[in-house]
Specification:
The complex is a heterodimer. Helices cover about 40% and strands about 25% of the residues of chain A. By secondary structure, chain A is α/β, with parallel strands linked by helices. Chain A has a domain at about 5-90 and about 170-250: Rossmann fold. In chain A, a hairpin with a 2-residue loop joins β4 (about 55-65) and β5. In chain B, the strands form two sheets. Chain B has an eight-stranded mixed β-sheet, sandwiched between helices. A four-stranded antiparallel β-sheet of chain B has the order 2-1-4-5. Chain B has helices at about 50-55, 80-85, 105-115, 125-135, 150-165, 180-200, 210-215, 245-250, 255-260, 290-295; strands at about 5-15, 20-35, 40, 65-70, 70-75, 90, 170-175, 200-205, 220-225, 225-235, 300-305, 305-310. Chain B is an alpha/beta fold. Chain B is globular and about 70 Å long. The chains are: A alpha/beta, B alpha/beta. The interface of A and B includes residues 185 and 252 of A.
């Protein structure tokens, strides 16, 4: 088992925002967490990387990653884990980066912080990863600023950075929600290709049940900070048990589905 | 079939950019909008759908073309007659949190258009607001609340109530449900459809989600890079002929694994609207692209009743 989360509870001050979340993730598998805004899905994956916003803290539970309890790590331990063994893909990778520095500068910095590579090898490594993400003309991208790229290209850069050190676990927070539909399909395809290719496991947070059904092995439905339903994706989608899951599935718009007029 | 309520005729909108060049946001768009129906304008970012909507709303003048509504070309209206025209077309915006003044009470938000046009007096505000809240299925005592005391879905209902207040013939919705959760989105769509049945309102619904509009649109117009690619009936999406429409359909993820087998990935990126290729705007991403597509822009023509396509290879 790569990651075992049990009875995880997270609170902001006195408010308990996530209660009693448990799941297991095997190597190379994809778990999606779906739910509506405020359901606590993003809080869960942020906790796994110990980057909860100010005021948030884990009040109960354990997270065992490769046999170690993540909650026992000190700041140095987290540093060696983050970005290498576990890395994160954000909703808009453009916002993750500094707009006044080139992508190349930040990419090289990121690689050098986490390894002993010299600048030249770091540059080559970055180019290699950008190429892997089907980005045309990677040298040009290294010289660009984030605002010069389209949303889809920015997201590819974010993924290229996240997979640099071939992490065992990728965390993705709504990685396709800000994208157009055809770009979303491209990125979802690439995420599948990457995880299958490198054997990385992934936890993806999304509100798009279609993407979740297409991509994931396991599916967790959250509402108001609690797990409503958790299981194999096909079981949850085809035979939902909880009323909440049923009503959620019923509201998904489908091509060739129900019509109100 | 109902009568045409608005005719968009050859609307083109160009924005000047540095170096004396022009960005063509809408290129020769023509659209007939029928009374009591919903027209969905669908496309990805930068396709010109919002620019077209702004022209229809008379919020910006098109570079050329006409928009015929209530017997006149509304792009020619000025001053008071232009203002009076707004009574008949109202709008619901994408983000209900930024569409309201946070310091105004719900009743004042809803009735502001009525006061602007001197249709009611101050003393009638509360009762009229209650009536309108009832129509959008919100509790009447919301009249004294402020927008921040409500959920996103409730705020969007208030936005609909405000749009309804003037009893307009057309309501334009710009991504009106995109910021909402999927279950809330569903209830808002059902509300819009119910109001349409009761009042015969016409909706122009701008949206990027083809699956969503397939639930309630009578007509769907697909745009790409400022051009109209295909217009067809909302219940006939499976007859879509344009390769771009087909690609959009294939990009929709479903909860039905059987349908997900047909997910197709459209390669490439949208070209910059500053250098739209001559010929077909979709040529660099189209699998059926041939010599003619690169040299000649396909005409937007009717291939069967009420089904328009701009493609040289539509039978491919």
């Amino acid at each position: 088992m790569l990651l075992s989360v049990s009875n995880l509870s997270i609170s902001y001050g006195k408010n308990l925002t996530v209660q009693d979340v448990s799941f297991d993730l095997e190597e190379g598998k994809i778990l999606t967490i779906v739910g509506e805004s405020g359901s606590g899905k993003t809080t869960v994956i942020r906790a796994i990387l110990n980057c909860l916003p100010r005021g948030g803290s884990i009040s109960n539970g354990s997270m065992i990653f490769e046999g170690k309890n993540l909650l026992d790590l000190d700041e140095k331990g987290w540093r060696s884990l983050r970005g290498k063994d576990i890395s994160m893909i954000f909703q808009d990778s453009g916002n993750m980066m500094n707009p006044i520095h080139t992508i190349g500068k930040q990419f090289i910095e990121y690689i050098q912080v986490h390894s002993d590579l010299d600048k030249k090898s770091a540059y080559d490594r970055a180019i290699e990863n950008l190429t892997l993400m089907n980005l045309p003309n990677p040298a040009n991208i290294m010289n660009s600023y984030t605002f010069e790229l389209s949303g889809g290209m920015r997201q590819r850069v974010g993924i290229a950075m996240a997979i640099t050190f071939q992490p065992k676990l990728l965390l993705a927070d709504e990685p396709t929600s800000a994208l157009d539909v055809t770009t979303q399909a491209q990125i979802v395809g690439e995420l599948m290709f990457i995880t299958r290719g490198t054997g990385a496991a992934m936890i993806m947070v999304t509100h798009n049940l279609g993407v979740a059904s297409y991509l994931s092995d396991n599916l967790m439905v959250m509402s108001q900070g609690r797990v409503v339903e958790y299981g194999k994706t096909s079981d949850v989608i085809e035979h939902p048990q909880a009323e909440y899951t049923k009503s959620l599935l019923k509201s998904v718009p489908e091509i060739g589905g129900r019509r109100y007029v | 079939m109902s009568e045409t309520i608005m005719r968009v005729e050859h609307v083109t909108k160009k924005f000047p950019v540095d170096g004396g060049r022009f960005l063509t946001a809408c290129d020769d768009i023509s659209l007939d909008i029928r009374r009591g129906e919903t027209v969905a304008i669908v496309g990805e970012s930068g396709c010109g759908k919002t620019t077209l909507l702004k022209s229809i709303m008379n919020m910006q003048l098109p570079t050329s073309g006409k928009i015929i509504f209530r017997g006149e070309d509304i792009t020619k209206l000025r001053g008071e007659s232009k203002r009076q025209n707004y009574r008949h077309i109202q709008m619901v915006f994408q983000d209900p949190t930024t569409a309201f003044d946070p310091k105004m009470k719900i009743k004042d938000i809803i009735c502001e258009p009525l006061l602007n046009f001197d249709l009611i007096s101050r003393s009638e505000v509360e009762s009229r607001a209650r009536e309108l809240l009832k129509q959008v299925e919100l509790p009447e005592d919301f009249v004294n609340r402020y927008p921040h005391n409500m959920s996103g879905g409730q705020r969007q209902r208030v936005a609909i109530a405000r749009a309804l207040s003037l009893e307009p013939e057309i309501i334009a919705c710009d991504e009106a449900t995109s910021a909402l959760d999927v279950s809330v989105q569903d209830t808002i769509i059902r509300l819009l459809v119910k109001l349409q049945r009761e009042k015969g309102i016409t909706y122009i619904f701008v949206c990027h989600d083809l699956a969503l509009v397939s639930m309630f649109a009578h007509r769907i117009a697909v745009m790409y890079l400022g051009n109209q690619m295909e217009t067809l009936d909302g219940d006939k999406l499976e007859n879509a002929k344009h390769p771009y429409t087909k690609a959009l359909l294939k990009a929709v993820f479903s909860t039905d694994q059987e349908k997900n087998q047909y997910i197709g990935i459209l390669p490439g990126d949208i070209p910059s609207p500053l250098d739209i290729p001559s010929g077909c705007p979709f040529q660099n991403r189209c699998e059926f692209c041939e010599e003619i597509c690169k040299s000649k822009k396909p005409e937007f023509k009717e291939i069967e009743t009420d089904h328009f396509v701009a493609c040289h290879k539509h039978d491919a």
